[in-house]
Amino acid sequence: MDARQVSAMHALPDGEAEISLVVRLPWEDVARLGQEAGRLAAQMQRPVTLDEAVSHRLRSTRPSASHAKPLAEQPAAVSANASVASLPRLSGTA
């Protein structure tokens, strides 16, 4: 079975969801994610994967609400050409 045919979303016992996806990024964005992983690894005192770095970055930049907003309140769709560079920077990072 092709990996793309496997279910891309799984419910986790802690109430969260795990979503698998393929993202095409320019190398400079991959480098930024590597830097993010390095900062997170230093903070956590253990090795960190790019997956963990992305998850941490998404969690740290989202609104504080723990549930989805009604469709009418959703922001406009993000451009397919959006990059990691367009994400808000974490405080204390260059």
Describe the overall structure:
The chain has 94 residues and is mostly helical. The chain is 32% helix and 6% strand. It has a two-stranded antiparallel ribbon with strand order 1-2. Strand 1 and strand 2 (17-19) form a beta hairpin. Helix 1 (27-44) packs across helix 2 (50-61). The protein starts with 8 loop residues before the first strand and ends in a 33-residue tail after the last helix. The model has no long low-confidence stretch (mean pLDDT 75).
Distance between the termini: 43 Å
Structural class: mainly alpha
Helix percentage: 25-40%
**Radius of gyration of CA atoms, rounded to a whole number:** 15 Å
Shape: globular
List the total number of helices. Answer: 2
Largest sheet: 2 strands, antiparallel
Provide a brief overview of the structure:
This protein has 94 residues and is mainly alpha-helical. 32% of the residues lie in helices and 6% in strands.
What labels describe this entry?
two-stranded antiparallel ribbon; mainly alpha; 94 residues; 32% helix
Give the topology, please.
Blueprint: E1 9-11, E2 17-19, H1 27-44, H2 50-61
Antiparallel strand pairs: 1-2
Helix pairs in contact: 1-2
